[in-house]
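Summary: Need help interpreting a holo structure output

Steps to reproduce:
1. Submit the protein chain below together with the SMILES for zinc ion.
2. Request a joint structure prediction with the ligand placed.
3. Inspect the structure token block that comes back.

Expected: a single structure record containing both the chain and the bound molecule.
Actual: see attached output.

Input attached:
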Amino acid sequence: MEEVRVFPLTCAVQNYAWGKIGLDSEVAKLVVGGDPLAVIEVDKPYAELWMGAHPKGDAQIKDNRIAQTTLGQWIAHYPACLGSKVKDAFQGQLPFLFKVLSVNTALSIQAHPNKELAATLHAQFPEHYPDNNHKPEMAIALTRFQGLCGFRPVEEILGFLQAVPEFHALVGRDAAEELRSSVGDEVRTSQALKKCFSKMMSCEKKVFVDELNELVKRVTQEGAAGKDTSSSNGDLLLRLHSQYPGDIGCFSIFFLNYMVLEPGQAMFLGANEPHAYIYGDCIECMACSDNTVRAGLTRKYIDVNTLCEMLNYKPASASSKIFLCVQDPADPCVTLYDPPVPDFTVMKIQVPASVKEYTVASVDSASILLVIEGDATATSAAAFSDLTMRRGSVLFVSANESISLHVTSQSGMTLFRACSLL
Ligand SMILES: [Zn+2]
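--- attached output ---
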């Protein structure tokens, strides 16, 4: 039998507690779109869809004519499908994990180590850092997506230190003063910011819980009296506190940029960049790793020393944290989200209503293709037969294979594709 190199996948769903519930979740909608027989439970969270070969959620091959049952098994058997460059650079493994996330309650504030630090941490504390790889991540909004990313401009942090005495109390007068007097000197600012953040993160629990309760009480009273609480970031504070009462992470909103991404906008989370996802649905792509250093909004272990040492203390505006995508010069339907790491690139493919025959071009890397909107019949010389593509369909495409889409929906198609462009 001739080897088949393009085939559909049934992807793993993760029902983490923070996910959106039932059919509110984009993940659940895509699951039922891709498989109308799938049962979605109305009160269950559908947090993540994993499209890849990660051992904790290896995709099932949706074609019983293929001997292997999962994508991971198949790639192990046919590593040439990765493309020769990817196969060599990533030791025969698919270098990325492609995901859809539906976030209902905030995920922990975190940062991911670079390769060097990941190797050190893994060697020292394998129980907290399970592998030696870096974990750059990209999030592309599918719906309005809220998160935290990177340190705010110093003027904003100084503004909160002045307006929020409970926050000032945790940072302390000396560190706050050092930050104030450092303005204009990048190196000193970065040092002072590190000191301020470290002071807050190393406060004793009783101290920050008391200050947090005080702050929440004050903001609640001000809100009830009809006052504007934006100088204390009141709405976000109360929302996070209701999800994580007594958590140090509630104070980090005064340090970190609050991001609101419109659909199609992205943020790239490089090494040592503090970030959190708060609410919304997104496409996510990441290097294969589980190394996460947490900073709050979590019931898990916080490694304060590692965290405070590693972070990127470079203040910058929220708008500068939006990752710039570019039009593919070779194809007006394709938008490229190409981060400065070799592990992955994401493409958004928008086929306009006027185009009925569209070719998904070959790339010299294995890729995973997800339909977000629209219907088509897909034809490929490397597939067993024609494939029906609709919202939620996921295809694995080996390197150097193209696919012809015969679009049957009236309003065009939207697809996302992850690959590794070395
Ligand atoms: Zn992360």
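--- end attachment ---

Reviewer comment: Residues 110, 112, 137, 269, 275 surround zinc ion (CB under 6 Å). The longest helix spans residues 205-224.
Status: needs-info
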